[in-house]
Amino acid sequence: MKMTRTTRTLTWGTLSWVGLALLVIWTMFPIAVMVFTSFKPGNEVFAKPNTLLPQNWTIDNFVNVLTDSTVPQALLNSVLVGVLATAITMVLSLSAGYALARFRYRGSRALSLFILMGQFIPITVLLLPFFIAINAMGLIDTIGGLAITHLVITVPLVTWMVRNQFASVPIELEEAAMIDGSTRLGAVLKITLPVAMPGLAAAAMFAFLQSWHEFVFASVITQSPSSRTGPISLTEFAGEFTVDWGATMAAAVVLTVPVVIIFLCLQRYFVAGLTSGAVKG
Amino acid sequence: MLKRNRKVGFYLTLPAVLLMAAMTIIPVVSVLQRALSGNEAFGRLFTSPGFSQVMVNTALWTVLSVVGALVLGYFGAMILQSKYLRGVGLWRSLFLIPWIIPGVVGATIWKWNFSRDYGQINQVLLNMGVISSPIEWLSDPNLVLFALVIVQIWSTAPFVILLVSAALTGIPAERYEAARLDGANGFNLLRYITLPAVSATTALSALTLVTWALNAFTIIFVATKGGPAGSSTILPVLLYQAFQTGDESMVAVIALLQLVLSAIFATVYIRSMRNELEESAA
Amino acid sequence: MNTRRLASLGVAALTAAALLTGCSTSGGSADGNSVTWWVPNWDAPAAKELVADFTKANPEIKVKLVETTADTLANKVSVALNSGTTPDVITELASRTQQYIAKDQLTNLDKLYTDAMPKSDFLPGTLADVSTGDKAFAVPYRWDNLGLFYNKDLFEKAGITEPPTTLDELKADAEKLSTGDTTGIGWQLGNSDSTILRFFGLAASAPKDPATNVDGAAHLTESSSKAALDIIGASVRDGWASKSSLEADSTAVRQLFINGQIGMYLGGVYDLVELQKNKMNVGTALAPGFDGPSKTAANGWVYLVPKASKNVSAAEKLVSYLTTPEAMNKLTLTFPARTSAAQDDRFHTDLAAPFAAQLSDHSIPAPYDPSWGKLAPTLFAQIQAVAIGQSTSEEAAKTIQQAADAALKGK
Q1: Could you give the CA distance from residue B66 to residue B153 in angstroms, rounded to a whole number?
Q2: Where is the signal peptide, in residue numbers (chain C) (predicted)?
Q3: In chain A, residues 64-123 whose CB comes closer than 8 Å to chain B
C-alpha cells in the first residue's frame, strides 16, 4: 500500500516535470532565437550556416535601440495606453458582466449578443470612422485617443469573461452577506470580488495585451513619438528595402522584458490561496 | 430576492452597450450599404478561381488553430496545477511570453525557423539525420498552412493557459477530497468535477480563439503573404489585401462575409450559455 | 437605494475615465503660418538640414516634421486624406498618387512648374505618374528602376567573362553558375510588389505583342505574359533560379547574393550601399531582355500637397524649395527626378552608370491604375503557381489574361 503510493507520486512527479520541460522548450525556443539574434551583428542574421548563438556577440543593437530610436518612449506609451484602456474596459465590463451574470431582464440576451458582436467587426472597416471621430474629439496623436479606439477590441470579450467569472461565484455567498446586514455593493466588494479575483485578473491581463498588440489603429492615430506605441516603433528599423533585424529583435526584447517582469510581480493575483480561503469562509 | 431588480441589471449593462453602439453602428451600416447596393465585387469574389480554396483554408486554419490552442492550453494549465512542481509562478510567466511578444516579431522569428536556408528547424532535423534535404515548410503548398497553424497555436495557447489556470484555481480543493473519499478515480475527477467547472471558460476560450483566427493576418502576411499560389490565403488575408490595394467594394463584401460567419459562431456560443445562464440567474 | 448606487458607480467611473482622457489632449492648434511635412524616416536626416536652410530663407514659415515609416505610410496617408484632416506636405510613393487624384484629394501643383523648373527637365515617365491630362498634382523628386547585379567572383569561377545581355544568355549563364550550394539567379517571389514589377518589365519587353501601360493601366497580352512567366516562374521550377526565391523578399535575395548562394539578381541601385558594405566583388549591367536590354518598371517618390491643407501657399513654397536641383540632389537615395539635378559624380560611377542608362533609355512606368491593384493577388499567385510547378506558363498566362480583362472591364 505504502509502496504503491510512493511509486505513484514518483511517476506523476516525473511526468509533471517532463511535461513542463516539453512546454518550456516549445515556448522558449523561438524566444531564444529572438534574444540571440538581438546580440548578432547585422551580417550574421542571414549567414549560412545559421547558428542559434551569435558568432560575434555585440550590444550595438541595444545601444542603437536605446539611444537612437523612439522605442523607450514607445514602451512607456504602450503601457499607458494599455493601462488606460484596461481601466476603462474593467469599469464597463465589471458593471455589465455583473448584470449579465446576476439579472435576467427582457432583452438581456440580445444586448449581450450585441456587445459580443463588436469583437467581430474587421478593424479595417472601423479605421476611417474612428479616425474621424477621434479627430473631432481633438484626440488625434494622443494616448487617450488611441486608448478609446482599443475599447472596441477589449470590451466585448472582457465583459463575457467577467460575466462567467461572476456566474461561477455561488449567489448564496452574496445573499448570506446581505442577510448579515451588508449592502449589495458591500457584499459584492467584500465577498464576490475577492472570490472572482483570479479570473478578473486574467480578464484585465487580456485587455491589456489586446491593446498592447494592436497595430492598425495605432498606425494611423499616432503620428509623433509622443504617442507612438511599441508595435509602431518596431517599424522604424525597416527601411524602404532593408530591414535591420538585429535592431528589431533588440527592440522586441526591450519591449517584452518589462511586461514579463510586471506580470511576474502580479503573480499573486492568480494563485489559488485567495479563492479557496474565501469560499470556505 | 435578486431577481426582482431587473431595471438595475439593465442600467448596469447600459454603459457598455452604449459604448459599443457608438463605436460600431455607423461603420457596420456603411459596410452593409456598400456591400448590398449592387456590388460587382460579389461576382468577382465568388467566381474568382481561388475562392473555394480560400474558404477551405479558412475552415482548416480556424479549426486546427482553435483545437490546437485549446489542447495545448489545457495541457499547460493542468501541468501548472500539479502539486509536484516548484516555482509555478515563474513557469506561468514564462509560458505567457509568446503572447506578450509583438505579433510581427513572433511571426518573423517563426518565418526564420521555418526558412529553407537559415531555419533552425531544418538544421536540427538535418543534424539528427531525420531528413536528407531541407524541407520547404513555407513554399510547399501542401505544408505551408500547417506550418502557419503551428505559429498561431504558439502565440495563442498562452491565453488559454492563463484563463484555464484561473478557472482551475477557482475549484475548491474540498470538492476533490470529498470525491476521492467516495472512491472516484482520476478520470472521474476530471469528468465530473474539473470539466464542468471550466466548461464556461472552455466555451469562452474557444470563442476568443475563433475571433482571433478569423481576424488573423499578421502571421500569414509576414511569413508568406498568403502564398505560394494562394495556398495559405484565408479570408482575413484577402480582406487586408483588398484594403491595401484600395479595393473598397471588395473590403465591404469580405467584411460582410466575415461578419456573417462570426455572427453564426456568436449565436451558437450564446445558445450554449443558455442553460448555464438560466441556472445561475433563476 | 443600494442598487441605484451601484448603477451610478459605473456611470461615475466612466465619466471620470472620460475626463481623464480629455485631460491628456494636447489640442493641436492651427498656427497661421506653420507647415506640417510627413517625411519617411530614411529621408529624415537630410530633410532636417533642408528645412533648416528653408527656414533661414523664409523665417515667417514654421516647418514641423513628422516622421513616417515604410510599413505604416500607406494606411496613414489614405486615412488622413479620406478624413479631410491632413498635413500640408506629404512624401509619398509615386504609384499611389493616382488613387488620391481620382478622389480629388490633392492640390493642383502646375504653378510650381515654372521656367526655373520646366516639365521637360523631368525624366521620361515621371510626370505621367502624378498627372491627369496635363495637370500635375505632385512633384517627383526621386526616381529609380531595376538593373542586374552579378557576382564577379562566381562569374570568373564559372568561366563567364561578360554579364548576360539577353535572356538566352542569362539562362545559359545561370545554368553554368548552378553548382553545389550556388544557383544562377534569385527572385523576390515572397513579395507581391517586387514579383509583379519584375514580371511587368519582362512582359513589356516581349518582342511580339508586349504588355503596355496605357494611362497607368496595364494592358497585358497572353503571349507576353507567357514569355515573362517562362523566365520568372519556370526558372525556379527548372532549377536555374534558387528554390529559396519563393520565400524571399528584397532583403533575403540580397542576402542570398552576399552569401554566394545566387550569382545574379535584379535589384535597385540602393542595394549598392549594402553590397559594398559587405565587400562584395559586384558588377552591374542593364537588365537582360529578349533581344537586347529589357525594360524595367520605374517608380519613385513625390511631394504632394493635400487639398485639405490649411496652408497651401506656404506648403507650395516649401515644395518648390525642395524641388530645386540642389535640394533634390541632397535628398535622393537613388537618382533625382530632374536631369539637371543629376550632375553629381555619385550618379555616374561605373557601378551606378547602368542604372542611370536603364532609367533614361529602358524604363517603363509602373502601372498605377486601381485595376492593377485589383489584379495583383491573381498575378502573384499565378507566378508562384508556375514556380512550384502547379501550373504551366500557358495555363497561368490564360488565367492572368481573364483576370486582367475582368479588372479592366470593372474600371
Answers
A1: 8
A2: 1-29
A3: 92-93, 95-96, 98-109, 111-123
Cβ burial of A149 (10 Å; 0-12, 13-18, 19+) is buried
CATH number of C137's domain: 3.40.190.10
C178 and C125 together in one domain? no
Residue C40's closest CA among C23, C61, C65? C65
**Per the domain annotation, does C24 fall within a domain?**
no
Burial call B212-236: b when 16+ CB within 10 Å, e when fewer? bbbbbbbbbbbbbbbbbbbbbbbbb
Task: Assign domain A69-280 to its CATH architecture.
Answer: Orthogonal Bundle (1.10)
Q: Do C127 and C198 lie in a common domain?
A: no
What mean pLDDT value characterizes chain C? Answer: 88
Q: Which three cell numbers stand for residue B145?
A: 498552412
> Closest residue of A to C64, CA-based?
A224
C235 and C382 both lie in a single domain: yes
Specify if C189 maps to a domain: yes
Q: Which amino acid is at B190?
A: L
B244 touches chain C (CB under 8 A): yes
Contacts of C3 in chain B (CB under 8 A): 5, 8
**Are the beta carbons of A185 and C9 separated by less than 8 Å?**
yes
Same structural domain, C282 and C136: no
Claim to verify: residue C197 and residue C324 sit in the same structural domain: no
* Interchain proximity B139–C247, CB inside 8 Å: yes
pLDDT in tens, B242-266: 888 777 888 889 999 988 888 888 8
Q: Coil, strand, or helix at residue A108?
A: helix
ipTM for the assembly: 0.87
Nearest-angstrom CA–CA distance, C125 and C140 = 10
Determine contact, residues B167/B197, Cβ cutoff 8 Å: yes
Distance CA B60, CA A149 (A): 31
What nine digits make up the cell of C57? 530663407
Q: Say how many C-beta atoms besides its own lie within 10 A of residue B277's C-beta.
A: 20
In a domain, C78, yes or no: yes
Question: For residue C174, what pLDDT band results from cuts at 50, 70 and 90?
Answer: very high
Closest CA to A205 of A259, A255, A145: A259
The helix (H) or strand (E) run that includes residue C184 is strand C183-186
Q: Are residues C137 and C156 in the same domain?
A: no
Which of A133-137, B199-203, C235-239 has the least mean pLDDT?
B199-203
Q: How many CB atoms lie within 10 A of CB B151?
A: 25
Cβ atoms of residues A225 and A73 within 8 Å = yes
- CA-to-CA distance for C296 and C58, rounded, in angstroms? 40
DSSP state of A55: S
pLDDT the model gives residue C254: 93
Of A30, A165, A272, the CB nearest to B113: A30
The gap from C-alpha B170 to its chain's centroid, in whole angstroms, comes to 24
Provide the residue ranges of all domains of chain A, joining segments of one domain with +.
2-62, 69-280
* CA nearest neighbour of C292 among C162, C148, C167: C167
Reduced to 3 states (helix: H, G, I; strand: E, B; else coil), residue B273 is coil
C274 near A CB under 8 A: yes
Q: Which residues contact A7 (CB under 8 A, 6 or more apart)?
A: none
